[in-house]
TrEMBL record:
Lineage: Bacteria, Pseudomonadati, Pseudomonadota, Alphaproteobacteria, Hyphomicrobiales
One Gene Ontology molecular-function label: oxidoreductase activity
Protein known as: Aryl-alcohol dehydrogenase-like predicted oxidoreductase
Keyword Oxidoreductase: yes
Keyword annotations of the record: Oxidoreductase
Record InterPro entries: Aldo-Keto_reductase, NAD(P)_OxRdtase_dom_sf, NADP_OxRdtase_dom
PROSITE patterns assigned: PROKAR_LIPOPROTEIN
Domain NADP-dependent oxidoreductase: 16-83
Pfam families from the UniProt entry: Aldo_ket_red
Length: 92
């Protein structure tokens, strides 16, 4: 997998990243936890080192899922996330 510099950060990431919104609920029902972890780890094994998530995907579930899946490789990947959403605790 080719690598690219992420902006001017000095971080090297895979040219192809994995957007993880669909693993939580974004495009239909959530993927099972074990299946999602397997998918994320397979992406890493194939050279993906850039993963995109957001606190709104779940909320928080997607970031937690990525944390579980990437724990063994944490120093080898870059996780991009979006934050700053206001969640109504009554709606969660």
């Amino acid at each position: 997998m080719r690598k690219r510099e992420l902006g001017r950060s000095g971080l090297q990431v895979s040219a192809i990243g994995l957007g993880c919104m669909g693993l939580s609920y974004g495009y239909g029902p959530a993927t099972g936890v074990q299946e999602a972890i397997a998918l994320i780890r397979q992406a890493f094994e194939r050279g993906v080192t850039f993963f995109d998530t957001a606190e709104a995907y779940g909320p928080y579930k997607n970031e937690e899922l990525l944390g579980l899946a990437l724990a063994p490789f944490r120093d080898e990947v870059v996780v991009a996330t979006k934050f700053g959403f206001n969640f109504d605790a009554r709606a969660a």
